[in-house]
Write a structure and sequence with these properties.
The structure holds two protein chains of two kinds. Chain A starts with 10 loop residues before the first helix and ends with a helix. Chain A has two domains: 1-66; 76-106. Helices cover 73% and strands 0% of the residues of chain A. In chain A, helix 1 (11-33) packs antiparallel against helix 2. Chain A is mainly alpha-helical. Chain A has helices at residues 11-33, 38-60, 68-75, 81-103. The longest helix of chain A has 23 residues, at 11-33. By secondary structure, chain B is mainly alpha-helical. Chain B has a single domain (35-239), classed as Up-down Bundle (Four Helix Bundle (Hemerythrin (Met), subunit A)), CATH 1.20.120.80. Chain B is 67% helix and 2% strand. Chain B has eight helices and two strands; from the N terminus they run αααββααααα. Chain B has a two-stranded antiparallel sheet with strand order 1-2. In chain B, helix 2 packs antiparallel against helix 6, helix 2 (38-67) runs parallel beside helix 8 and helix 4 (91-115) packs antiparallel against helix 5. Classes of the chains: A mainly alpha, B mainly alpha.
Chain lengths: 106, 241
């Protein structure tokens, strides 16, 4: 890559990823269409979501070919959001619980 | 007076790979991101900040949805359409998803043809991307109209269930739609620059003295793929939950 300007990759890889994204989107739509429920639904939705996100970031946004310093600066900070996600879930559970106490007895 | 003897400062140091490479790059003099133009590094940093904004919206949405004691409206039914007599759940959203993914595909190819200095193909691919983006916004406008006029969804309540549905829906999809709209405008601007040859002649843009280069197509692409990326998450957690 040293003598090439910017990111240049064979067109085939974009078409393959495009096709894969179509397949994954169809799959996640079918999860809803066939009315999967419970943990099966959730694990399928999250797996397809993360696969699609990974493909877009790594190939379309060229993260696969960037130097690690840029990759880490971009990818590591959003991991902090898991903490916010956890706090949000805890808080929501508590709010639901207290609402159950105050409004449930009506 | 003898002229001072020039000493060789040597060649550039080799760049280590892996974890030592990260440390060396980030602690190095002058620039941390060695082989990317600064415009691209800045776009990435903007996208990280945008990630946090969208995540705040999505996590707040999760929090209000988990904590409400009123049943949430079923998105599968709310966004169903009847086409040619068939009642198909969530079909509009599925079409919007495919449109946005396709626009990401054409954008990725535009970046490639840009670096090959193929002006015409880049121009056409950028315009296709913009057209797909515009049709996405159009379908979103249709979706909003249906929800507001026919279903009576308001930010403060709706006839189908939890009041939080409207507020989170309009906030999240509205903010995303705004991003798409801004993206379409900049795609058209970039396309005009490409076809006019600004990026070959190094003509500066209207707000900057910086010379035009084909890296702006890639930077535009980063933004556009990010918009698609956000939609992946919205599609999964808002429409499929």
């Amino acid at each position: 890559m040293a003598h090439v300007e910017g990111q240049q990759h064979p067109i085939g890889i974009y078409l393959k990823i495009w096709g894969l994204l179509f397949v994954l989107s169809t799959a996640s739509y079918l999860v809803d269409y066939f009315n999967f429920e419970g943990y099966l639904r959730w694990s399928l939705i999250i797996v397809f979501m993360l696969l699609k996100a990974g493909l877009i970031v790594s190939v379309f946004m060229h993260m696969l070919w960037e130097r690690l310093a840029l990759v880490y600066v971009v990818v590591v900070p959003p991991v902090l959001l898991l903490v916010l996600l956890g706090i949000g879930a805890l808080e929501a559970d508590y709010t639901f619980f207290t609402r159950g106490i105050f409004f449930g007895a009506e | 007076m003898t002229p001072p003897v020039l000493t060789s400062t040597g060649d550039a140091l080799p760049r280590p790979e892996g974890l030592p490479g990260i440390v060396a790059d980030l602690s190095s003099d002058q620039r941390a991101f060695k082989n990317v133009p600064w415009g691209k590094a800045m776009m990435w940093i903007f996208l990280v900040s945008d990630t946090f904004i969208f995540s705040c919206f999505l996590i707040s949405y999760m929090t209000v949805r988990m904590s409400t004691t009123v049943p949430w409206p079923d998105p599968s039914e709310v966004f169903a359409l009847t086409i040619a007599g068939h009642h198909i759940p969530l079909i509009l959203i599925a079409i919007m998803t495919f449109i946005l993914i396709s626009s990401s595909g054409t954008m990725a190819m535009a970046v490639r043809f840009g670096y090959l200095k193929d002006r015409k193909t880049t121009f056409i691919l950028l315009l296709i991307t913009a057209a797909l983006g515009a049709s996405f916004v159009g379908m979103q406008a249709f979706e909003w109209t249906k929800l507001i006029v026919e279903d009576g969804v308001r930010p403060w309540g709706n006839p189908m269930g939890a009041a939080q549905f409207g507020s989170t829906f309009f906030m999240i999809t509205g903010f995303h739609g705004t991003h798409v709209t801004i993206g379409v405008i900049f795609l058209i601007i970039t396309a005009i620059k490409v076809i006019r040859g600004d990026l070959d002649n190094g003509r500066p843009g209207f707000m900057t003295g910086r010379k035009g280069k084909y890296e702006i197509v890639e930077i535009m692409g980063l933004y556009w793929h990010f918009v698609d990326l956000v939609w992946v998450f919205i599609f999964a957690v808002f429409y499929l939950w």
